Description:
The protein has 337 residues and is an alpha+beta fold. It is built from eleven helices and eleven strands. The chain has helices at 2-5, 19-32, 37-58, 64-75, 81-84, 94-109, 114-120, 124-129, 143-157, 162-176, 180-183, and strands spanning 187-192, 195-200, 220-221, 254-259, 262-268, 275-281, 287-294, 298-301, 305-309, 314-321, 327-334. The strands form three sheets. The chain has a five-stranded antiparallel beta sheet, with no helix packed on it. Strands 8-9-10-11 form a four-stranded antiparallel beta sheet, with no helix packed on it. Helix 2 runs antiparallel to helix 3, helix 3 (37-58) crosses helix 4 (64-75) and helix 4 (64-75) crosses helix 9 (143-157). The radius of gyration is 23 Å and the shape is elongated. It starts with a helix and ends with a strand.
Amino acid sequence: MDQLVSRLLLYGDLGEDSILRRLAELFQEWQGHSPPRQTLVRGLYHQVKRLLDLATDYGFDGNLWQNYLTFLLMTNENSFSLITERVGQLEGTVNHFAKSDFGVFRALFHYDFGPIEADLGIDCFTTLCHYTAIYKHERRYNKAVSEKVRALSHALAAAQDDETFFHLVTDHYRRYGVGMIGLNKAFRVKSGPEGVSLLPAGAVAQAPTADFQGGLLAWYTDQGEGTGEGAYLLLPQAGGVYSLPAGPAGEARTYLAAAQGWVYYTARQEAGRGMALWARNLATGEAVPLLERCNITGLVTDGTWCYCTNGSTTDCYRLDWDGQGRPTGLVLVESAL
């Protein structure tokens, strides 16, 4: 295992205390016959427990080892994953290094733990690879992350070659982005002695409406699944609590940003007309159209200026308002910033 992990280039920054890094070191020690066997077993069990804790938090099931490797791929921000998020595969030399790393991950996906288990008289890795999780209430784990991890893990395990593995991972980056922000549908702000943290809001997608006291709007979409469920997000300001409704089935509504009491979102129109940008009043629920056609995947605004991106370029708009405090439209100020 240590020989495989040492070959990682783009995905090599795992952190010295990561589970994969520590396991690789322990496997190297096992091959070198340096520490006592009981010390090795104790070290391996510690990393297995850490993996089980992670699996509990994010609802892994089935093959926890492959789930964990998939989680690493989903959350590792590097020069390849960052340029492909929300865009997908691009032509460039970096793909060569990415495919090499994915070849390592594919080998790790199907790693043979038999020799070390037989030598040390353990079966923890075999158990991890054939795991049946205890049922947990959806509020006990992050269901949004769980579903994405398990779906991609299953697809990667079935990949017949490194090229297929490459396309599956880059397609995930295109659809969801990379890192924890890409995995979670909504976020909340937690203030404490160590500062302000951006945390997942939790399992909100199973309720028809959701109220959270305190939070921050990042973005949230139903990913075009057509269910209309869960497409809501909360932005409390000055102690207020707001619920944003799901759009009708198939609308693929995406909430992007909020300012001055209005939340901005894109929504799919009728077939062939693409996406439109809307603003919704947090207090009254009034919705007004701002752009009839757009390809916006991200938006930042202070209520006066809007910076809109499609994943590759960013445009600056001025937000116009009427005399009754309603936004009326966007005026392009500068394109391709």
